[in-house]
Structures are given as structure tokens and as C-alpha cells.
């Protein structure tokens, strides 16, 4: 027969309430008691029933992560961080794809009302959907927005996209580049406007006039990076010496087009991206990029939802970024 919470309590010499507190990772339990309960639970192969826990505590121990993002690696990293936080606290993560158009329709309220979760993580571009956030408030569902552009009256986990883009563009300028192309992200993502703002600020502070012909639309996908690069590199007499793509997938698309056109990277064209996803090190030359703390964002978002402290007090958590300089911007003629 399967072990019960009564069996664990009896063998550990504690009350069932203490066992419950330990398994729910609640505070104010002595370490020796916690260790003893966990050891007994493991020896008895005790597995708490999630449904029973929910009935006893009026909680589901489920957190939903909603996503609509062209970059699979971005969502995977957010997911990994959220899962880590959930497992540490006895929760489970529920993944729910939601196209941005659906988030702004009556269907969203029906879906969210059926989830029965304790909280929701909104990833870009859903994190900027005013309609979706209003629905969650009406349903009284706690939620955390990842990388939102609008941060009023909401729990949010972010990094400073504008400052990161400013620093990366400044780096290119310091390398000697004056003709710099820029590939935008998806128009529904708040980060798209922030990254363009940082790019233009760096040009302005360096006294470099913005060339609108070298600003190209993208949507964070590899395919859109290819299309943007074909536009930016089509004229050999009027093309940039460096291209800053708003994420790594699009930067990889740029390098693919450059290779097809016989444009050597970095000798004839420097390329950099954003996010430091796995593709940045898989392609060659390896990609200069901004290391965004994506995993930490997922972990922190889930942790805020799980925390019982001040649930109604909006918190803005800003995490650090780092410029990762690799071969895609090193060794070009401008350095000689």
C-alpha cells in the first residue's frame, strides 16, 4: 500500500501538520525536523497527492506560463527558470500557448477562467496586453509580467533593454563603425521600442546621423532576419559595415545571408545580436550578443507568484545584463 502522510508523521515523530508544512516548504520549521521528515518521506516513497493538497489548502499548486514568441530558445529558458522555482516550492508549471490576437479577445477570459491556477506568468508580447492584464484582475488571478514595456500597477521582472542596446551600439562605434544597420523585433513586443531607443541614443551621442534606410523590420524569427539582411545588404555600394539585430535568431539570419552573398564576417561585416541564446555559440563565427538573464527572469517571476509576502504590492525586479564579445565583431578591417 502507498504510504500516507500519517505514516510519515508517525515514523518521524511529528504531527501531520508539521509534515505538511515541511512538504509545502513553509518557513519556521527547524532544520533538523525538516531533514528528518524529508528522510522519512523518501524512505517510505511518500508522494503527496496534488489534488488532495489543493483541497486542504484552497490552492492548486499550479502556475501557468502564457506565451506567444517566435524564439523557441527564449521561451525554453523562461520555462526552465520557472520550473526550477516551482520544484523548489512544491508547485508545477502549466504551459499555455496563446496567440497575441487571442489574448485580446473574449476567448482569453474563458480560457483563463478554466485554468484553476494560483498565478500566471505573462511573457512578451502578452506581458504588454492591457486587455489580458485587465482580464486577470477581473478574475482575481495573481500575475507577473516578464519584460513589459508598461509597468504601471503590475508585478514585473525585466532588464534595461534600452541601456543594453545603447551599450552594444556604443561598442560598435568604438570599434570604428559609423555605418550601422539595425533590425527591429516584433512590433507587439515592448522590448522592440526600448532597444531601438537605446540604439538611436548611442548614435546621437556619437554625432552619427541615423540612416532610416538601414533600419529594417523583423519579428524575432530567423526568417525575418534573413529578409531584413537581404534588404540591408542588397546594394554593395550602400550597405552598413555592422548590423545589430534585436535578437540572436535574426542575427543568425544576417550571417546566413552574408555567407550566401560572399560577405565575410567579421572582415567585411560585423554582426551582433541580443539574448545570448544557444544559437549564438553554435554558428560560426560565434556571435557577439547581449546576455539577457532569461532563466533568472523565469525563476524570479515564479518565485514572486509563490511568495506569500505582500501579494497586492506591485514589485518591479530589474536584473543585470552583460555584453558578450565574440568573433562576429572581432578582427575586421576597422580594427587594423
UniProtKB/TrEMBL annotation:
Q: Name one Pfam family in it.
A: Peripla_BP_3
Q: Which SUPFAM superfamilies is this protein grouped with?
A: lambda repressor-like DNA-binding domains, Periplasmic binding protein-like I
User: Which residue intervals define the domain HTH lacI-type in the entry?
Assistant: 3-57
Keyword DNA-binding appears in the UniProt entry: yes
Database matches in InterPro entries: HTH_LacI, LacI/GalR-like_sensor, Lambda_DNA-bd_dom_sf, Peripla_BP_I
Transmembrane segment boundaries: none
Record key words, sorted:
DNA-binding, Transcription, Transcription regulation
Organism's domain of life? Answer: Bacteria
Q: Which CDD domains match?
A: HTH_LacI, PBP1_SalR
User: What is the official name of this protein in its record?
Assistant: LacI family transcriptional regulator
Q: Where is the signal peptide?
A: none
Amino acid at each position: 500500500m502507498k504510504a500516507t502522510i500519517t505514516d510519515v508523521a508517525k515514523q518521524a515523530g511529528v504531527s501531520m501538520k508539521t509534515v505538511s508544512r515541511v512538504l509545502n516548504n513553509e518557513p519556521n520549521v527547524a532544520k533538523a525536523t525538516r531533514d528528518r521528515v524529508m528522510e522519512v518521506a523518501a524512505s517510505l516513497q511518500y508522494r503527496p497527492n496534488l489534488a488532495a493538497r489543493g483541497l486542504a489548502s484552497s490552492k492548486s499548486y499550479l502556475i501557468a506560463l502564457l506565451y506567444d514568441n517566435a524564439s523557441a530558445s527564449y521561451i525554453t529558458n523562461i520555462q526552465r527558470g520557472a520550473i526550477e522555482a516551482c520544484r523548489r516550492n512544491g508547485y508545477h508549471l502549466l504551459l499555455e500557448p496563446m496567440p497575441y490576437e487571442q489574448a485580446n479577445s473574449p476567448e482569453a477570459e474563458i480560457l483563463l477562467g478554466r485554468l484553476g491556477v494560483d498565478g500566471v506568468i505573462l511573457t512578451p508580447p502578452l506581458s504588454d496586453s492591457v486587455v489580458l492584464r485587465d482580464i486577470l484582475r477581473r478574475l482575481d488571478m495573481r500575475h507577473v509580467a516578464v519584460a513589459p514595456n508598461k509597468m504601471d500597477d503590475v508585478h514585473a521582472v525585466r532588464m534595461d533593454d534600452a541601456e543594453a542596446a545603447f551599450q552594444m551600439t556604443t561598442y560598435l562605434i568604438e570599434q570604428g563603425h559609423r555605418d550601422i544597420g539595425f533590425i527591429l523585433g516584433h512590433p507587439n513586443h515592448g522590448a522592440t521600442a526600448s532597444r531601438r531607443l537605446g540604439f538611436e541614443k548611442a548614435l546621437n551621442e556619437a554625432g552619427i546621423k541615423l540612416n532610416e534606410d538601414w533600419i529594417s523590420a523583423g519579428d524575432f524569427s530567423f526568417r525575418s532576419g534573413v529578409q531584413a539582411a537581404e534588404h540591408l545588404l542588397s546594394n554593395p555600394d550602400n550597405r552598413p559595415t555592422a548590423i545589430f539585430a534585436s535578437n540572436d535568431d535574426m542575427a543568425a539570419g544576417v550571417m546566413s545571408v552574408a555567407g550566401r552573398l560572399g560577405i565575410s564576417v567579421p572582415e567585411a561585416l560585423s554582426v551582433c545580436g541580443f539574448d545570448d541564446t544557444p544559437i549564438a555559440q553554435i554558428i560560426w563565427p560565434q556571435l557577439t550578443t547581449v546576455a539577457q538573464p532569461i532563466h533568472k527572469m523565469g525563476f524570479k517571476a515564479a518565485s514572486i507568484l509563490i511568495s506569500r509576502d505582500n501579494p497586492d504590492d506591485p514589485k518591479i525586479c530589474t536584473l543585470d545584463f552583460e555584453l558578450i564579445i565574440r568573433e562576429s565583431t572581432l578582427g575586421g578591417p576597422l580594427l587594423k
